[in-house]
Design goal:
The complex is a heterodimer of chains A (553) and B (306). Chain A has 553 residues and is an alpha+beta fold. Chain A has helices spanning 2-23, 30-33, 71-80, 128-139, 157-161, 191-194, 205-211, 265-273, 288-294, 323-331, 335-343, 373-386, 405-422, 433-442, 461-464, 481-492, 496-513, and strands at residues 51-55, 85-87, 93-95, 98-103, 109-114, 172-176, 179-183, 227-233, 237-242, 256-260, 299-312, 348-349, 396-402, 425-431, 448-454, 516-527, 532-533, 549-550. Among the domains of chain A are: 61-213, Alpha-Beta Complex (Dipeptide-binding Protein, domain 1); 303-524, Dipeptide-binding Protein, Domain 3 (Dipeptide-binding Protein, domain 3). Chain A contains 17 helices and 18 strands. Residues 1-35 of chain A have low confidence and may be disordered. The chains are: A alpha+beta (553), B mainly alpha (306).
Amino acid sequence: MSAQLRRSTAFAAIILSASLVAACGSGEGPASRAAVEIGGESGTELAERQVLRRGNGAEPQSLDPHKSEGVPESNLQRDLYEGLVSSGPGGEVMPGVAESWEISEDGTVYTFQLRDNARWSNGDPVTAEDFEYSLRRSVDPATLSNYGIMLRPILNAAEVIAGELPPEELGVRAVDSRTLEITLGNYTPYFLGVLSHSAAFPVHRPTVETYGDRWARPGRLVSNGAFQLQDWVVQSHIQLVRNPYYWDTDNVRLEEVWYYPIENQSTELQRYRANELDMTSDLPYRQLRWIRENLADELVISDYLGVYYYGLNVTREPFRNNRALRQALNLAINRERLTSQVTGAGEVPAYGYVPAVAGGYVQQTPEWAAWTQAEREAEARRLFEEAGYSVDQPLRLQILYNTHENHRTIAVAISSMWNEVLGIQTELVNEEWKVYLETRRSKQTTQVFRAGWIGDYNDAFTFAELMHSASAMNDSGWDHPPYDELLARAAAERDPGRRVEYLQAAERELLQEVPLIPIYFYVTKRVVKPWVGGYQPHIQDYIYSRDLYILKH
Amino acid sequence: MLRYTLSRLLGAIPTLLILIALAFFMIRVAPGGPFDSERALPPEIEANLRAAYHLDEPLIQQFGRYLGGLLRGDFGPSFQYKDFTVTELIGTGFPVSLRLGGSAILLALLIGVTAGTIAALRQNTRTDYSVMAVSMTGISIPNFVMAPLLILLFAVTLGWLPAGGWGGGAWNHMLLPVVALALPQIAYISRLTRGSMIEVLRSNFVRTARAQGLPERTIILRYALKPALLPVVSYLGPAAAAVITGSVVIEQIFGVPGLGRYFVQGALNRDYTLVMGVVVFYGVLIILFNLLVDLLYALLDPKVKY
């Protein structure tokens, strides 16, 4: 069985590379031939059939918004459900089911006014009690939610998740059917942003209580978003249709949205080129050049709230108590060359850790970011020697990454840069996703590991908290009291300006100590057919289908 | 024959038990677990999850629980696809895989036997050489190379057929995956048929038939084909296994919602119950299919008696 397992993984890898090879260097597809008169004479004429077909990565784990965590699930859930608030292209908070809200002077009590015309897809009104029930359900340990932890800012949420208090003790209260009051444990400036996350979406209580674990299915699922579930064939497609009871349904133009689970990005691109998809979820790196040459008008690249970095395990040799070595490795990476020649989708070289697009934050960069690469390399060599290594005392390192073509390419590039500048001998180790997570987490054998983080909400804190010494995701094992102290101060600070200053000071501390090496800031990359109207990039890649429409073509 | 069938079925039980035990323990030995994810779970939630799926019990107790479930036809809940049970997933995936695999085997038999027979009749002519050359290519090119090439040609460049998806089993969606899956089998079957047909055509009863002046058509179709097909029939068992293995790859490439895809995704996600379900289900299927082939053999070959 284990041989079988490994073989199937190997198969997957081979399929991937084979299809990559096959899809390169082919001629014109029907897609490029079909480009005629988009949008009729006026250019804005709508197509008769308002049907959108979206590539969506993996098969969703669940359509229950409290039981899933991945990107494919959240794309679907944003169409199916609507939270108290929604999110604009720059991550700004927009009204959702709540039409307005008030925040108490100390910033800990939020009072939401729900719109009176918000309805579930079966016609029931969406009430404050629905939200009270849903938020409690999301943090109730019996729900087995893996993202209920997003609601931690709410009073008593952590205790409820830990099973120390009953869900009824959560700081959420329906004052009347249209007024919801949420009390926070502490002042949390990014809290409204959390409410557009699927962990805060409402679920229809009678449906959940009638069907238990099996309610999120066609014919049963009742939702309150712009669309409702029509059909779900696992591993094939999910069909959503317009929810006629949605409060803003007059402004929704799509009648149907079809989501296709396609893990392999090359396969997804092929189906896009064969006109079976209107937009993809991602693109294969290796075909970017071809896409730039042949589908340039359909390529959309935009900022994404995420950072790609190399973590350094500071609990073990050689990085333990060796800041000079960590900094030498940091300086020796030529990020401009990496992003222009290796990744090439427009990724932004990262010298700091928090992405520049994070709301209300000014990115921190170390002093050496302004140096030339030659100066950085000279300093890297000096620090490397200071750390006790030289040509006669070469360093051997292991880079761990999860099996993926893109990660391998980057690891090869970085190891050659390290070798060129510092004479380091690196060994590349790749492990399948679940194995890699376990290895990383155990901190026993890792030295350098590839990692990435996409912000859960639009605030620098989602990045900063990762490296707190108590964070379960701090796989560097970094334990730096001044950093923890700054985060604690930021969390307790009421003044937004001073709070940001604490976070910035924390980031400077991190950049100084180098428990991780930032490499680049992510971009979203996809192809979108020219007849898809209303497409607006979003920094968290929240593409709501209700904003989209199909032009005549 | 009934006795034979029964004893074969009884004999399959230990085989199945060993298969289940191996699969059960080995997937749990594989590093990484179903609940590992990039955002670490709060320990309380992870403990609850483990309890909900009975992963907190001793392994042997879990195994007993699993076997008990199997006896009731219950494969357990899927770890990954939380809205479904494994039984439901197999129930939706298997008809698709059956249709795909069945069509591929039928196509392989139809074309393979025809091509092999023609090649045998025209032994050492240009027709023979070209059939054998094509089938050699078919065997040598693995389907994970063939499939993307087919997609590129027929879906992307020519635009005749869809590049993927199942379309509820519409013929145009089925064509490419069936062909990709059948190609290596066509190649193998045509070589087998050719070889055994050549042998049969040299045998005494064919010579006698010819001497009696029977038309060539009758000789081939009525007398020669049946014994010539024996090796093909015994190959059907391995062919079914090969088609099942092949479908794991083909379904992934074409996005066909069958069992093979569940197997790959289940293994990667450490969806213990789903992987187990597919393994057990396919195990039973292959055992039954091999039995069927042996019984069919008795019908075709008068020398075989059970």
